[in-house]
């Protein structure tokens, strides 16, 4: 004989001890059958001890009558309670022991009366309840639900702030005949107004925690940054999404257009060894874009320069100094290593190396294992060769031209405006043409 209690904290299956407590088991089964416990709240939760339920409204409400037995519902208030059968062999030794809550009988101190309220133990060896509560069942499934109830946040009276209620009861096996006048409802009844009035925080209501706008905005930006980094990793611009900028590189902006790399390196070199210092320039005109990157040998020197050089005047311009957030060097080192590995393996993408060579963000390795030149928007090699950086390079795999005609000679004129060499060559060609014609005539005559 078993009963399933569906609660907002989870399901509980109770096996009934009909051989030891027949009266209590019959009362509990019939109350479950008429859906008396539906929407009953869990109250008086005592951590690691027990929790109590069974009053359809709850003892805190002024409309509560403390609950009634099945005979009180059928025959009137005179049978609201019944004598509880307390078996001397049944003890509260195990967690999940189910017993009826009882009170002493005013007419007989040795007898205890029970109604509809029952309790479930949340701990072991609770001898205090022996003889005071009438054991009639044990929990066989749903111990995780007991833990949820045990860990619920409660007020000083033991009432959970967020309601824990019995939603539905299902009888798995009932050996008892129905008392006269018992009618099983066709469906689960809706909560009464008195029950709804006792709701604090509904069991299906989400408790909204106070929202810190600054923290929420920070979390939103972090999620957005992670999504963008993951996108850059997928397209190959970053070696991995969690890459961090180097901590020994400074970003300097608001420079005077006349400030050169050497001038900036000389000014910042008093803080330590500088590995690279470059003013970023336009790749077409070579004009300064008024910002630069300075790479120190270690992080401590970089931090000193950051604190000391903020807002100083260089060439009549008050500069701004910050730590670099660029990872172009790290990306290019990773990309170059990846490309070289593909080349050694005989693979790679068509035109990939050529595209990478023309990238706007390019780091050039000075042979020391570090990228010594940013070269972000200005290619010195192209300017030195006098070639437009945007010009499409010649394909080395294109077949050479098959034209064998010699290049045309540049004509040179004398002081009178004549090109003697051109006229001479023209005269020689005419002479040759007439000679060929004369030879042809002689052959014809000889054949005759």
Automatic annotation (TrEMBL):
<dbReference type="GO" id="GO:0003723">
    <property type="term" value="F:RNA binding"/>
</dbReference>
<dbReference type="GO" id="GO:0005634">
    <property type="term" value="C:nucleus"/>
</dbReference>
<comment type="similarity">
    <text>Belongs to the cyclophilin-type PPIase family. PPIL4 subfamily.</text>
</comment>
<dbReference type="InterPro" id="IPR035979">
    <property type="entry name" value="RBD_domain_sf"/>
</dbReference>
<dbReference type="InterPro" id="IPR035538">
    <property type="entry name" value="Cyclophilin_PPIL4"/>
</dbReference>
<feature type="domain" description="PPIase cyclophilin-type">
    <location>
        <begin position="6"/>
        <end position="171"/>
    </location>
</feature>
<dbReference type="GO" id="GO:0003755">
    <property type="term" value="F:peptidyl-prolyl cis-trans isomerase activity"/>
</dbReference>
<feature type="compositionally biased region" description="Basic and acidic residues">
    <location>
        <begin position="370"/>
        <end position="398"/>
    </location>
</feature>
<feature type="compositionally biased region" description="Basic and acidic residues">
    <location>
        <begin position="439"/>
        <end position="448"/>
    </location>
</feature>
<dbReference type="InterPro" id="IPR029000">
    <property type="entry name" value="Cyclophilin-like_dom_sf"/>
</dbReference>
<dbReference type="InterPro" id="IPR012677">
    <property type="entry name" value="Nucleotide-bd_a/b_plait_sf"/>
</dbReference>
<feature type="region of interest" description="Disordered">
    <location>
        <begin position="363"/>
        <end position="448"/>
    </location>
</feature>
<dbReference type="GO" id="GO:0006357">
    <property type="term" value="P:regulation of transcription by RNA polymerase II"/>
</dbReference>
<keyword id="KW-0694">RNA-binding</keyword>
<protein>
    <recommendedName>
        <fullName>Peptidyl-prolyl cis-trans isomerase</fullName>
        <ecNumber>5.2.1.8</ecNumber>
    </recommendedName>
</protein>
<feature type="compositionally biased region" description="Basic and acidic residues">
    <location>
        <begin position="411"/>
        <end position="431"/>
    </location>
</feature>
<dbReference type="Pfam" id="PF00160">
    <property type="entry name" value="Pro_isomerase"/>
</dbReference>
<keyword id="KW-0539">Nucleus</keyword>
<keyword id="KW-0697">Rotamase</keyword>
<dbReference type="GO" id="GO:0000785">
    <property type="term" value="C:chromatin"/>
</dbReference>
<feature type="domain" description="RRM">
    <location>
        <begin position="248"/>
        <end position="326"/>
    </location>
</feature>
<dbReference type="InterPro" id="IPR002130">
    <property type="entry name" value="Cyclophilin-type_PPIase_dom"/>
</dbReference>
<keyword id="KW-0413">Isomerase</keyword>
<feature type="compositionally biased region" description="Basic residues">
    <location>
        <begin position="399"/>
        <end position="410"/>
    </location>
</feature>
<dbReference type="InterPro" id="IPR000504">
    <property type="entry name" value="RRM_dom"/>
</dbReference>
<comment type="function">
    <text>PPIases accelerate the folding of proteins. It catalyzes the cis-trans isomerization of proline imidic peptide bonds in oligopeptides.</text>
</comment>
<dbReference type="Pfam" id="PF00076">
    <property type="entry name" value="RRM_1"/>
</dbReference>
<dbReference type="InterPro" id="IPR035542">
    <property type="entry name" value="CRIP"/>
</dbReference>
């Amino acid at each position: 004989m078993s009963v399933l209690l569906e609660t907002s904290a989870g399901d509980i299956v109770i096996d009934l001890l009909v051989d030891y407590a027949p009266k209590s088991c019959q009362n509990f089964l019939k109350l479950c059958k008429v859906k008396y416990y539906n929407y009953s709240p869990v109250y008086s939760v005592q951590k690691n001890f027990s929790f109590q339920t069974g009053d359809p409204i709850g003892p805190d409400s002024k409309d509560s009558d403390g609950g009634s037995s099945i005979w009180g519902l059928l025959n009137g208030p005179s049978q609201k309670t019944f004598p509880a059968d307390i078996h001397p062999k049944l003890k509260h030794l195990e967690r999940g022991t189910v017993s009826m809550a009882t009170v002493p009988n005013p007419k007989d101190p040795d007898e205890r009366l029970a109604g509809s309220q029952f309790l479930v133990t949340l701990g072991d060896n609770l001898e205090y309840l022996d003889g005071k509560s009438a054991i009639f069942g044990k929990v066989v499934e749903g111990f995780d639900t007991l833990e949820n109830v045990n860990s619920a946040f409660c007020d000083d009276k033991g009432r959970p702030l967020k309601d824990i209620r019995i939603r539905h009861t299902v009888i798995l096996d009932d050996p008892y005949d129905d008392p006269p006048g018992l009618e099983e409802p066709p469906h689960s009844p809706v909560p009464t107004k008195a029950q709804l009035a006792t709701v604090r925080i509904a069991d299906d209501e989400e408790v909204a925690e106070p929202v810190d706008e600054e923290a929420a905005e920070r979390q939103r930006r972090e999620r957005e940054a992670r999504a963008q980094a993951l996108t850059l990793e997928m397209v190959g611009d970053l070696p991995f999404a969690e890459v961090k900028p180097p901590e020994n590189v400074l970003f300097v902006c608001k420079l005077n257009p006349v400030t050169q790399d050497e001038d900036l390196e000389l000014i910042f070199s008093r803080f330590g060894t500088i590995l690279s210092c470059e003013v970023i320039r336009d790749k077409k005109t070579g004009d300064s874009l008024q910002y630069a990157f300075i790479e120190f040998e270690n992080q401590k020197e970089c931090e000193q320069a950051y604190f000391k050089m903020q807002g100083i005047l260089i060439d009549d311009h008050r500069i701004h100094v910050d730590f670099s957030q660029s990872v172009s060097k790290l990306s290019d080192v990773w990309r170059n290593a990846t490309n070289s590995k593909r080349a050694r393996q005989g693979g790679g993408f068509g035109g990939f190396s050529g595209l990478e060579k023309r990238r706007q963000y390019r780091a050039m390795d000075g042979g020391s294992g570090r990228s010594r030149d940013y070269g972000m928007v200005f290619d010195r090699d192209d300017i030195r060769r006098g070639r437009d950086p945007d010009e499409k390079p010649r394909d080395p795999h294109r077949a050479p031209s098959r034209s064998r005609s010699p290049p045309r000679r540049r004509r040179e004129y004398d002081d009178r405006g004549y090109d003697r060499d051109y006229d001479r060559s023209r005269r020689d060609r005419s002479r040759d043409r007439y000679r060929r014609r004369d030879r042809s005539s002689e052959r014809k005559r000889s054949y005759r």
